[in-house]
Each structure stands twice: as structure tokens, then as C-alpha cells.
């Protein structure tokens, strides 16, 4: 038997779903059992073993091995005596430390070879597209791309499972925009998944979620130097996994750079937010040319911020992009976002724009 599965030996019904989702999100196979005979048989050859107070006593009778992680329900306390008895490397409370556990479980390699017939295991994600992937990109700074992406997710979440992805390495964090900065859940630096295959539904379950059901994968903020850099090789497999699962994925894309170039062709379409200004239109024309080369369906939204020198018709001629809507200046929204994040009740003009985008993509809203 290959060692590419994670053994989930967790009896606590409170933390069991969280443990299985996190294990599956690594891309490894998952074998889920609390049968002592099965634990004895599978324990030594697993990539990692997740245990709790219900199963720690039995695991303590088996040969000592690395990669044992003890789990307890948030807020604790952790039964450190049980954790030490079963020789756990560390202990985690879930869901508060879900991201830490995900990081500890490490990279995934060749997950398909680790499945065992007759056991509950996460197989490889099907390449067949089930969900919709919509990228949102601004042709100029300060256009409000992140706000539009988050608003699009908010509107779509009324009728669909929605995941909002921050694909900009220099973003301040979409979790801040949606008020999730203090909630536990995985951020980009936690998803160093190597070449493993990710189950989209399990990945979504490992993310922080807004009260209206938007799962958010954002960058992480730190005051210390961090070697992690968000690149296309990180973003692409995540989008492919989410695209293979039901639901809508909205991607906040940078205008340029490796991440944008590597993932735009994965999207079903890209929405360009184009300020109605000469330089922004020139930049959009270049972006449309690049997207046309990769055969990515592209539509535009004319953005009027303060004074606009161009009309929607002008933008269509300059950029050769189909302009499907216009978004005017929203003077109160910027202050509301700064003080309390994107409001659950969006301004009427913003809601109307998101509905136009979703309708054009064939998504009900």
C-alpha cells in the first residue's frame, strides 16, 4: 500500500467533518475509520494520522511514528496527557487552527495511488467542468476591481455556492474587505500543495466563510519577511479544482504579471473594469489583445469615477471589447467599505451591474 493517504481516526462528531475536509484539501487520499483493527493495520503506512481523545488510547499501543496529530474541539482545552501518550507531534483545536493543521500536513504527491478499495477515500478531481469561473480585472489602479469581485460574489451567493479568490500577490486581502480577517481558515500560504490534486468541495470547506456563504481564499498579512509569493503555479490548480466542483468561483485578478498570464485561460470569461479615461482605455486594449490570443471570452464594464472623458461607445471602439454595462461613481461606498467592509446590502447601481455580468455569463441571480 502506498503512503499517500491520511488516516483520519477521529471519533468526536464535532471535529470529525473539519478533520476530513482538511485532510482531503491536501490532495492526499483519505481513509476515515475509528475501528481499532483498521487503525492498527493502516497506522504505520499512512502519510499522517489524525487522532482525538477517543482514539488516542489505542494509537498509544502501536509503534511510535512521526506525523501523528492530536485534535480537539475549539476552544479546548487540549487533553495534553492523551496527546503525549500517543506521541503526537502537536495538537490543534478545530476550527481555529485549521490553517496550521493544513500546513503541517504538508505537500501532496501522487494522491491517486494512495486510495484503498473498500475505504472512504478522496479520489482525484474530475477534469470535467461543473462550476463557472469568472475573472475580474481592472485596466487601471483604483478602478474598484476587488469591490466589484466581492459584490459579484455576494450577488451570486444568493442562489449558488460561491468561492472568492484573491489572485493578486500584492493585495491587502479580500478577507479584510468582507470582514473575515479574524476568522480561522486557510489563506494562500497554507496551501502549498505541490503536485497533488485538490477536491474543490474540500478546499472550499477549509476556507473562512461570510455569513451569506461566500468562501474566501485571500492573501495573508505579516509584519515579517515571508518567502511565499503567489504565482500562477499556485493559483491554477486551485481554480481547476473549484471549476470541477458545482458552484461559482470569482477571481480577483491582477492586470499583469505571471499569476494573471497563467490563470486567465482557465476562466470561462474575464470581466474588464475599464475607467472611461484615455490611459485606462489604452491599457484595456492591450489586455484585450492578450486575452484574445489565449481565446478567453472577455466583456467590459465602463467605470465612471468622477470625471470621465470617454463614453461606453468610445471604450468599445478603442478596446475592441464588448461593453455590457456601466458603473457610475458611488460616493458613499468607499467610506462604508473603509469603516466596516463591503455592506451586505449593496448599492442599487452595483447590484444591477453584478446582475448584468452574471446574466451575460448564464448564471442566475
Walk me through what this model shows.
The chain is α/β, with parallel strands linked by helices and 365 residues long. The chain contains 14 helices and 12 strands. The strands form 2 sheets. Strands 8-7-9-6-10-11-12 form a 7-stranded parallel sheet, with helices on both faces. Strands 2-1-3-4-5 form a 5-stranded parallel sheet. Helix 1 (16-25) packs across helix 5 (98-105) and helix 6 (145-156) packs across helix 14. The protein is elongated. The model is unreliable at 107-128 (pLDDT under 50). This is Rv3660c-like CheY-like N-terminal domain-containing protein. Residues 10-113 form the Rv3660c-like CheY-like N-terminal domain. Pfam families: Rv3660c_N. It comes from Corynebacterium comes.
List keywords for this structure.
single chain; 365 residues; alpha/beta; Rossmann fold; 2 domains; 5-stranded parallel β-sheet
Shape: elongated
Q: What is the CATH C-level name of the largest domain?
A: Alpha Beta
N to C succession of SSEs:
EHEHEHEHEHEHEHHEHEHEHEHEHH
β-strand percent reads 15-25%
The DSSP helix count reads 14
The tally of structural domains comes to 2
CATH topology of the largest domain: Rossmann fold
In whole angstroms, the N-to-C terminal distance is 47 Å
- Poorly predicted spans: 107-128
What proportion of the residues is helical, as a percent range?
25-40%
Question: Structural class of the helix and strand makeup?
Answer: alpha/beta
CATH architectural name of the largest domain: 3-Layer(aba) Sandwich
CATH-defined superfamily of the largest domain = P-loop containing nucleotide triphosphate hydrolases
Organism: Corynebacterium comes
Protein name: Rv3660c-like CheY-like N-terminal domain-containing protein
Domain Rv3660c-like CheY-like N-terminal: 10-113
GO cellular component, one term: cytoplasmic side of plasma membrane
Amino acid at each position: 500500500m502506498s503512503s499517500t493517504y491520511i488516516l483520519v481516526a477521529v471519533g468526536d462528531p464535532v471535529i470529525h467533518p473539519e478533520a476530513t475536509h482538511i485532510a482531503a484539501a491536501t490532495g492526499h487520499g483519505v481513509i476515515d475509520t475509528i475501528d481499532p483493527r483498521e487503525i492498527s493495520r493502516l497506522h504505520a503506512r499512512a502519510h499522517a494520522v489524525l487522532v482525538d481523545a477517543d482514539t488516542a488510547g489505542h494509537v498509544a499501543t502501536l509503534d511510535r511514528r512521526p506525523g501523528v496529530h492530536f485534535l480537539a474541539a475549539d476552544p479546548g482545552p487540549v487533553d495534553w496527557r492523551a496527546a503525549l501518550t500517543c506521541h503526537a507531534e502537536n495538537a490543534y483545536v478545530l476550527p481555529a487552527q485549521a490553517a496550521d493543521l493544513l500546513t503541517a500536513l504538508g505537500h501532496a504527491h501522487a494522491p491517486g495511488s494512495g486510495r484503498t478499495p473498500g475505504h472512504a477515500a478522496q479520489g482525484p478531481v474530475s477534469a470535467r467542468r461543473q462550476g463557472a469561473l469568472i475573472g475580474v480585472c481592472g485596466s487601471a489602479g483604483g478602478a474598484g476591481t476587488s469591490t466589484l469581485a466581492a459584490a459579484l460574489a455576494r450577488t451570486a451567493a444568493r442562489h449558488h455556492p460561491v468561492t472568492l479568490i484573491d489572485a493578486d500577490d500584492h493585495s491587502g486581502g479580500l478577507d479584510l474587505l468582507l470582514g473575515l480577517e479574524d476568522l480561522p481558515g486557510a489563506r494562500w500560504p497554507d496551501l502549498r500543495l505541490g503536485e497533488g490534486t485538490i477536491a474543490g468541495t474540500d478546499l472550499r470547506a477549509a476556507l473562512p466563510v461570510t455569513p451569506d456563504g461566500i468562501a474566501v481564499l485571500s492573501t495573508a498579512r505579516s509584519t515579517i519577511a515571508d518567502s511565499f509569493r503567489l504565482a500562477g503555479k499556485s493559483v491554477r490548480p486551485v481554480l481547476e479544482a473549484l471549476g470541477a466542483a458545482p458552484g461559482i468561483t470569482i477571481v480577483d485578478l491582477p492586470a499583469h504579471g505571471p499569476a494573471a498570464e497563467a490563470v486567465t485561460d482557465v476562466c470561462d470569461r474575464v470581466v474588464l473594469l475599464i475607467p472611461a479615461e484615455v490611459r485606462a482605455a489604452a491599457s484595456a486594449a492591450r489586455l484585450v489583445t492578450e486575452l484574445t490570443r489565449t481565446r478567453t471570452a472577455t466583456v467590459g464594464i465602463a467605470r465612471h469615477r468622477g470625471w470621465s472623458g470617454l463614453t461606453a461607445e468610445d471604450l468599445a471602439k478603442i478596446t475592441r471589447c464588448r461593453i455590457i454595462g456601466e458603473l457610475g461613481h458611488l460616493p458613499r461606498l468607499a467610506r462604508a467599505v473603509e469603516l466596516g467592509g463591503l455592506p451586505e446590502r449593496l448599492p442599487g447601481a452595483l447590484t444591477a451591474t453584478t446582475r448584468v455580468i452574471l446574466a451575460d455569463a448564464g448564471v442566475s441571480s
